[in-house]
Write a structure and sequence with these properties.
Layout (H helix, E strand, L loop, with lengths): L1 E4 L5 H8 L3 H6 L8 H12 L3 E7 L5 E11 L2 H4 L1 E10 L8 H15 L4 E4 L6 H9 L14
Parallel strand pairs: 4-5
Antiparallel strand pairs: 1-2, 2-3, 3-4
């Protein structure tokens, strides 16, 4: 298994992963050709030193997982850095075999190498299995998150 930064060629595979669940099907547009907004977003992510879009490949170099890490510099915690993990997805045929734990272990170690003092995530309340998984990894629901969609 290999972790690496995503390339432009990976974007269709990544979008397929994020669109492959009940919530993703409602908000993503996975088709060929891929809508330009995904490629534009990738370019911005790729140019930002505080963002890392990661793919996980198996021994056959197939993309089987993805995640995005964002490193947020802020003034609180004495000018600390926090890592935000988003869009963690695993290919359907690879779920339930421990890949998620491996991906989170990798992400946590990566955050430590960037001197982050914590790693955080948000998850939709409609994903009870994901919430249980994160709690089993040691994540705690210490804050109430809120959103305002435009």
């Amino acid at each position: 298994m290999q972790f690496r930064k995503a390339t432009k060629n990976d974007i269709p595979k990544i979008v397929a992963l994020i669109a492959d669940d009940e919530l993703g099907k409602k908000r993503e547009v996975f088709k060929d050709p891929l809508p330009e907004q995904y490629l534009n977003a990738f370019e911005k992510i790729n140019l930002d030193a505080n963002n890392e879009l990661i793919v996980v490949e198996n021994e056959d170099l197939e993309v089987i997982g993805t995640l995005q890490l964002t490193f947020i510099q802020y003034l609180t915690y004495q000018g600390g850095i926090r890592a935000q993990i988003e869009a963690v997805r695993i290919r359907k045929d690879q779920r339930g075999v421990g890949l998620g734990k491996i991906m989170f272990k990798w992400a946590i170690e990566r955050a430590k190498t960037k001197n982050a003092h914590l790693i955080q995530l948000t998850t939709d309340k409609q994903r009870p299995e994901a919430i249980k998984f994160y709690k089993n990894l040691g994540f705690k629901a210490t804050h109430e998150g809120m959103k305002l969609h435009f």
